[in-house]
Backbone:
């Protein structure tokens, strides 16, 4: 069973934005509160996290796990990497942690967190990591599961997405090359970024994200990396879009049975329910 926990679903500044008087930032609806984007994957009593931004500590206090078996990075921007120092509690309990990143991300981490990578006179409180290099055309083993890297472009900036079984996670997307889209066929679940309604030079807007969904035809899609400029969760959910917005701390479990049938169980942390009934007009 693969369990997915969405630790954060907001864009780089999170929602609310510090000092903003935008109505969404002033909303009292907890579904409008979004930490920086991150997801936790769990299977066979193993725990992996994709990206650790500046909210990493807060996210794992809210979603406690006994150990961290690996940390995967999509790219080097601060909202995806700035929380790396907060792996220390796991390091103190279990030793060096496995990091999975491409060469570009590794270079940025070595610059920003040089004390973690020191080999001489290293500060004793600094964590130690094992670097595993990712390549877009090389699937790799992660805790007994095959992971297929999927490269997307954040304008011209390469970002690594991941496919595990029939689940794919893509953030900070602007374009996806044809050969990478081939890796995204026959998905049960697609998680993809949708920043706002208006066009943006670095990110998919809502219309562009829906066009990709229409092409790939996954069984179910969820949007993440969401800006306050997409609007109130409640209002966006009522306009007829076919893909739900993700809220923080949603857990998704699925069990795979014989004959490739899937059984779904959804566990919502908050005590209300939504009925997802969208029809694109």
Residues:
């Amino acid at each position: 069973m693969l369990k997915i926990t969405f630790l954060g679903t907001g864009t780089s500044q999170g929602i609310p934005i510090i000092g903003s008087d935008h109505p969404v930032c002033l909303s009292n609806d907890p579904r409008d509160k979004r930490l920086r984007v991150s997801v936790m994957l769990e299977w066979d009593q193993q725990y992996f996290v994709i990206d650790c931004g500046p909210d990493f500590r807060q996210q794992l206090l809210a979603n406690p796990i006994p150990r961290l078996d690996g940390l995967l990075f999509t790219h080097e921007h601060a909202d995806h990497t700035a929380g790396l120092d907060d792996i220390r509690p796991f390091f103190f309990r279990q030793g060096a942690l496995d990091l999975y990143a491409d060469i570009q991300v590794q270079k940025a981490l070595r610059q920003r967190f040089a004390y973690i990578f020191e080999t001489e006179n290293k500060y004793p409180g600094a964590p130690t990591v094992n670097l595993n290099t990712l390549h877009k055309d090389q699937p790799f083993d992660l805790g007994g599961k095959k992971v297929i890297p999927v490269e997307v472009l954040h304008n011209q900036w390469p970002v690594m997405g991941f496919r595990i079984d029939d689940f794919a996670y893509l953030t900070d997307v602007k374009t996806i090359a044809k050969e990478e889209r081939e890796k995204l066929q026959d998905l049960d679940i697609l998680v993809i970024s949708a920043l706002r309604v208006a066009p943006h030079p670095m990110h998919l807007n809502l219309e562009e994200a829906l066009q990709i969904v229409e092409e790939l035809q996954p069984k179910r899609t969820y949007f993440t990396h969401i800006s306050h400029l997409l609007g109130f969760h409640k209002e966006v959910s009522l306009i007829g879009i076919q893909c739900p917005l993700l809220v923080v701390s949603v857990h998704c479990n699925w069990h795979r049975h014989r004959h490739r049938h899937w059984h779904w169980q959804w566990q919502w942390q908050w005590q209300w329910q939504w009925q997802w009934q969208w029809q694109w007009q």
Notes: The CA atoms of residues 14 and 172 lie 14 Å apart. The chain has a mean pLDDT of 86. DSSP finds seven helices and 14 strands in the chain. The two ends are 36 Å apart (CA to CA).
